[in-house]
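Researcher: Quick test of sequence recovery. Tokens follow.
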């Protein structure tokens, strides 16, 4: 039995009862032979949408089971350790809910860069430690088996460039 590959596409709105992916304008379709419909950049865009709507299940559907997520706030919130695996990502979403009254990410550019996808954008939010207003951020996403396996977030573009170049 051949395995079907997963492809992402925008979901048409519908009056039917919607599933979590549909709430984020996301849908997964199984259609082998349409490899050109998969785009790492599009998957990253969908991941941002899942985060902004706090749809954990839609976000997890885009992440490799061995995901490693290095956040700027993880040094304080997660004992300085990256969030690992789907359980770690569930913890990350719980930490965001606990520490932020409001937090939104706004990618402005999403582009392939060698073996990664880089997103440049801004973060805004209000939390117990203060507020962020359109603070610049750079995200680096790496893929394995068409799923995001690594995410790094940088508030300093120079650090992001060093991470991309392997320095």
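Model:
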């Amino acid at each position: 039995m051949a395995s079907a590959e997963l492809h992402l596409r925008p979901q048409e709105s519908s009056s039917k009862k919607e599933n979590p992916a549909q709430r984020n304008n996301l849908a997964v379709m199984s259609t082998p032979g349409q490899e050109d419909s998969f785009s790492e950049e599009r998957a990253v865009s969908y991941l941002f949408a899942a985060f902004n709507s706090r749809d954990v299940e839609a976000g997890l559907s885009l992440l490799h089971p061995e995901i490693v997520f290095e956040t700027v706030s993880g040094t304080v919130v997660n004992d300085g350790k990256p969030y690992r695996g789907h359980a770690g990502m569930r913890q990350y979403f719980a930490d965001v809910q606990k520490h932020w009254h409001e937090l939104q990410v706004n990618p402005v550019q999403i582009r392939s860069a060698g073996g990664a996808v880089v997103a440049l954008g801004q973060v805004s939010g209000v939390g117990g430690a203060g507020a962020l207003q359109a603070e610049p951020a750079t995200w680096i996403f790496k893929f394995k088996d068409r799923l995001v396996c690594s995410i790094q977030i940088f508030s300093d573009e120079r650090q992001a460039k060093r991470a991309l170049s392997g320095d």
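The CA atoms of residues 44 and 141 lie 8 Å apart.
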